[in-house]
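Backbones bend. Shown next:

***
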Amino acid sequence: MYIETIIKLKNATMAGKKVLRVRHTKMDHAVSEVLLQYGFLKKVEVKGRMPKRSLELSLNPVRKIESVRLLSTPSLRRYASYKDMKNVRGGTGILVVSTPKGIKSGIEAKREKVGGQLLFEVW
């Protein structure tokens, strides 16, 4: 699940790693693409073939993941409309949302006027 991947990313950043390999899922790949778009990752590559596919994530040493706040958990799902989405840390972080149009940042969800499940905040 994406929760394990985002925690591994934060820990790898704090440990000073340059590359992190995690198992490939569609959800992890979509979340990684959003983090890549906002500069938290340098590169996202899919390695291997189908049964043992993995994601190779190159971490960005300039824009590090300082902290993560999980908003939805498997036992408690949180939803919001696009009107209720606020900036994270004065615009320095991003909110990641699962919408009917796919995994989006809070900014993109507001722009497209679509709400959904709040996954996590990262800054």
The chain has three helices and eight strands. Helices lie at 2-15, 26-37, 106-112. The longest strand covers residues 41-47. The CA atoms of residues 99 and 116 lie 5 Å apart.
